[in-house]
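Lecture 7 notes: from sequence to structure.
We start with the chain below.
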Amino acid sequence: MSDRQSIEDAQNDSNLNQEQKRKLLLSQKARDFAFNELKLKKTDNYGTFINLNRPYVSWVVHAAHKWELKNYEWSYPFIGKMPYKGFFSEKEAEIEAQEMQRQGFDTLVRGVSAYSTLGYFTDSVLSTMLRYKDHDLVNTIIHEIVHTTLYIKNNADFNEQLAVFIGNKGTELFYKQLEGDQSATLKTIQNENHDDFLFSKFISDKVIKLREWYTQQNTQNDQDREDQFRQIKTNFTTELAPKLKTQNYKKFSEQKLNNAYLGLHTTYMQNLDDFETVFQKLDKNLVHFIEVMKTLEKSKDPRQDLKNL
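Predicted structure tokens for the same chain:
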């Protein structure tokens, strides 16, 4: 944060190339759109820039129980429980993952390019975010601003799924306004959102079945578990892949699956169709949808209250 600078100063920074400067200006258009068009909470977030000079802002550790499809959750002051733990050093993240493995958990370590401090601090656009494609940068800005607009303590999955949904829909609206209904970028976004929706339904179904399988096991056989993971990847290749319009999920069938990796997908992608159902009932009015979602802020069970809606 000590290296934070204004967007104006960043435009004159000789350490940034013209492409980075162009994307910085795009981030400000996305920020203005989120505040003024989507009516998300106005803050000073993403109005400044930090050049990190490294590939990721942090490295995140995910862990899950090995014989139960359940994310391990770390407890934090103020924000409650979260299914991940972040480090500013990849080495420290790997050490944490190794310790969790010694305790018998499945783990996953991944680098992340952006995060939200939920309004506790002023977040900046980071140089790591400028590696995104244009529409992914727009999506990320909207996604992170959702977190400062609505955050339900101890409900990380719901919070992330909501931000994914609004980020996807908001990015569509942004490019409709910026480039028009015939925009090639808009078509790409719509195809990616189509694939997200199908993948969400696929992974939600597989998660339910795998959870049932775990409850039915009297013995813990690693090979049997690997067979389950292999079957999920086979189902992906035969059932889902032919229906996808983009290459966004092409690596899924190549990924070594474990409960932590599947848990990551449940956190971000499970049951997006619940949000879609409410969105459709509200005549696809995203601003109205966001207002309705805000009514869930004090909910003890936001997922069930969403279904009730």
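Points to note: The mean pLDDT is 96. The two ends are 41 Å apart (CA to CA).
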